[in-house]
């Protein structure tokens, strides 16, 4: 075991708890009989008692299902690219997506500020592209990081009248950390004070050098407002994604990532999930972080009920017992009982960890006193 109480440990040693407590006291630690000691600490105390200790690593059940079985290359099929739109606040990310989707989300946002992640799928020349809109406001770093992690390509939106700003740089760092190629969309070129070349100049400092200047970064000049350069941007996205040969196996139980989740008054817990492999079906039993359930309904980005979601598709998942956290992995399992058991084991593990963290003698404590 990873840890045990002083009493359990004493029993194994064939000593009294008092003797163990005394030994711990030699290290300046006041422990109680029910206090947990970790394996390293136990090793030191056992050695003090004259035992020779060999540590065996226990084979642990993978209750978090972190490992995905690799797919046979023959099962892989092309999937749409997942494209995350990032950039400084008000540089026009949502407007750009509105122009691409021919919608008007910007108009419905409170104060014109995006406060959550939006996920949409569009079709261009018969090919699907999944877009993720992220907030540019400085308060939403975690959401940007999450957006960068699930994506294949990052669109860095920089307003030509404002230039490189703090969250522009932050977005570059997120994309680089996630190893994702960046396409720069220099926006608002319709403005009289637009200086697209200044933006290009500024970005060279961050290693983003236009092809025309001998670099390898794709720059597209756009106006979300006047719908200039949209077609070219979409072409570039497809070009860059073709180079990546994005594939997934759609013919297996789904795995996906929660991009956001909330409690809806009428519908209960709702999780927006980006399916990454396999196909998610209505009726599937799922475990999502600490939550579980049977998929009661799937709703696509246009608010339509769908029966299934294939790789790269964002869907709202209804039917979970509770609200999962953004970033949680959704995994389809055999049946609801399995899902529930896993979720309960996870909850227990988490609870135990929290408890242990507050009531534990660790190796660190020992060394503090030596
Ligand atoms: P956050 O999500 O809060 O970070 O903002 P955002 O990057 O999504 O910007 P948003 O699309 O909300 O646009 C901000 C403002 O810029 C709005 O008033 C838009 O109308 C305006 N805007 C966006 N694109 C253009 C453009 O191409 N030209 C001009 N002139 N204005 C634009
Ligand atoms: Mg926005």
Automatic annotation (TrEMBL):
Subcellular location: Cytoplasm
Domain of life: Bacteria
Binding positions for GTP per the UniProt entry: 87-94, 133-137, 187-190
Residue ranges occupied by any Tr-type G domain in the UniProt entry: 78-247
Region (G-domain): 81-229
Family the entry assigns: Belongs to the TRAFAC class translation factor GTPase superfamily. Classic translation factor GTPase family. IF-2 subfamily.
Function: One of the essential components for the initiation of protein synthesis. Protects formylmethionyl-tRNA from spontaneous hydrolysis and promotes its binding to the 30S ribosomal subunits. Also involved in the hydrolysis of GTP during the formation of the 70S ribosomal complex.
Protein name: Translation initiation factor IF-2
Provenance organism: Carboxydothermus pertinax
Phylogenetic lineage: Bacteria, Bacillati, Bacillota, Clostridia, Thermoanaerobacterales
Span of the entire protein shown here: 258 to 627 of 836
